[in-house]
Write a structure and sequence with these properties.
This protein is an all-alpha fold and about 475 residues long. It has 19 helices and no strands.
């Protein structure tokens, strides 16, 4: 298993994951833009706030089970028992969500109980997905995972638009989650994913429970990093402003989600394959962090330069208040590369306690700063607080792995970050009083200058990535 070219496998997986995710995100963004003409901000606010409410049930998230199987390197042997544990966790989570809906029915709280019940069903149906995905990940078959997610997105987004056109309001954003889950699992199964169906074995399940719950706590914390600010906005700012806030975050986060979340899912199993070689692991992690920080910085800077005028061309006027929020929230994402590499490294090495602490700090920062911002300046203040929390919190992941990965190499990060920040501020100052064509020119200028600055400080990962891609592309092996 360890004789394979892990470098090529990682780059190949990244290529296909980014390729299919890019297609999916294009469809998603176009769908979200279309929805602004079909849904009111309060509809989006209601749907997203309900989802933020159930985020607190993620303590029983099934996603951690797949990570445990990969970390233990026993996917084939223990997938059958993991299925029973996954089903139990999903059932308990769905019952908790249904209980919240029941309480809402009797006490008439500001939650749509029917939306909660739909989410409970979707959660239960998706229980086997994490086991199927773990099987494909164990084979480093990320092309099939990315393809299944792409097909699921192609079903989900058009269905959302169709239901919104029919006048389903917030239900249009929730109901399609059920067919999306089903399609995703069918595609993974047809792509070769499977698990061994067998009778429950308590001794094996017991070995999986503790690490699964530990990772589930991190899953809860990862979810709350985004959902807690939305929950706070729903309480203090009302449905309409919550709609502006959550939509602005979605637009700002699309490309970063594509890069950060997808690559985190690739780096974790790749790091796991080489965690018996700590020197090599730390070298790969350092180069990955540098490449990711460069790409994310360029993406965030570029979209922040374009959002104001470009969005005004495609959005109805009732959604204009969401545009400055997307710009503010983009600025908080520039260091997500540290979050990706830090969390993947800690998970691959079984450092779950440190991962929980870092994630808790991030959640607390996001929650407190969003809350204070909302009290001081409504939705603008909440966005600034959330961006600051995300920005500062990214360094907590870096701090935990500093001595292993970053020590002695910080200059290669600090110099391009400072120079890029200066270049972006200059381009932004020049663009705010010019027409769109000049803004596009400034954007391309920023991209080229930023890329050159990061390339100059490259630690070898960028050149390795380009050379490997070119060689494999010429040989038609990707």
């Amino acid at each position: 298993m360890y004789s394979m070219d892990i470098r090529y496998q990682t780059i190949k997986n990244a290529f296909w994951s980014v390729f299919f995710s890019s297609l999916n995100k294009v469809v998603t963004v176009l769908g979200q833009l279309a929805l602004t003409w079909l849904l009111l901000p309060k509809d989006v606010g209601i749907a997203n706030w309900v989802q933020s409410v159930i985020a607190f049930t993620a303590i029983l998230s099934v996603g951690g089970i797949g990570d445990v199987l990969l970390q233990r390197k026993k996917v084939n042997q223990e997938s059958g028992q993991a299925f029973w544990l996954s089903g139990t966790f999903s059932l308990l989570t769905s019952l908790i969500i249904a209980l919240i809906a029941l309480i809402n029915f009797f006490y008439k709280k500001n939650i749509d109980g029917n939306l909660l019940l739909i989410l409970a069903v979707a959660n239960l149906i998706g229980a086997p997905a994490t086991i199927l995905a773990a099987d494909l990940k164990s084979k480093l078959n990320y092309k099939s995972i990315a393809f299944s997610q792409f097909i699921g997105g192609m079903v989900f987004t058009p269905l959302v638009i169709f239901l919104a056109w029919l006048g389903w309001g917030p239900y249009a954003l929730i109901v399609p989650l059920i067919p999306k889950q089903i399609i995703n699992m069918i595609i993974m199964y047809r792509q070769g994913a499977s698990f061994r169906f067998e009778h429950p074995n308590w001794n094996t399940i017991r070995l999986l429970i503790y690490p699964s719950l530990t990772i589930a706590i991190t899953g809860l914390l990862f979810g709350l990093q985004t959902q807690l600010p939305i929950f706070i906005c729903g309480i203090y700012l009302g449905n309409q402003n919550t709609g502006f806030f959550s939509w602005g975050w979605m637009i700002a986060n699309q490309l970063i989600f594509l890069l950060a979340i997808n690559l985190k899912e690739i780096l974790f199993p790749s790091f796991t394959y080489i965690n018996h070689k700590p020197v090599l692991l730390n070298q790969v992690a350092l180069k990955s962090a540098h490449i990711l920080t460069a790409i994310v910085f360029i993406v965030c800077g570029t979209q922040a330069l374009l959002f104001q005028d470009l969005m005004q061309l495609v959005l109805p006027s009732q959604w204009f208040p969401a545009i400055p929020l997307a710009i503010i929230l983009s600025s908080g994402l520039i260091f997500r590369g540290f979050w990706v590499v830090g969390s993947a490294w800690l998970t691959a090495n079984g450092k779950y306690q440190k991962l929980v602490i870092a994630s808790t700090i991030q959640v607390v920062l996001n929650g407190i700063l969003t809350w204070q911002g909302a009290l001081m300046d409504q939705v603008i203040g909440a966005s600034i607080g959330f961006a600051l929390g995300t920005l500062i919190g990214s360094f907590t992941y870096m701090a935990w792995v500093y001595s292993s990965i970053f020590k002695g190499h910080l200059k290669k990060f600090i110099v391009p970050i400072v120079l890029n920040a200066g270049a972006w501020i200059l381009c932004w100052r020049l663009s705010i009083t010019t027409v769109l064509t000049i803004q596009l020119g400034l954007m391309f200028g920023f991209v080229i200058l930023s890329a050159l600055l990061w390339w100059k400080s490259d630690l070898g990962g960028g050149r390795l990535l380009m050379s490997t891609l070119m060689k494999r592309w010429m040989n038609n092996k990707i």
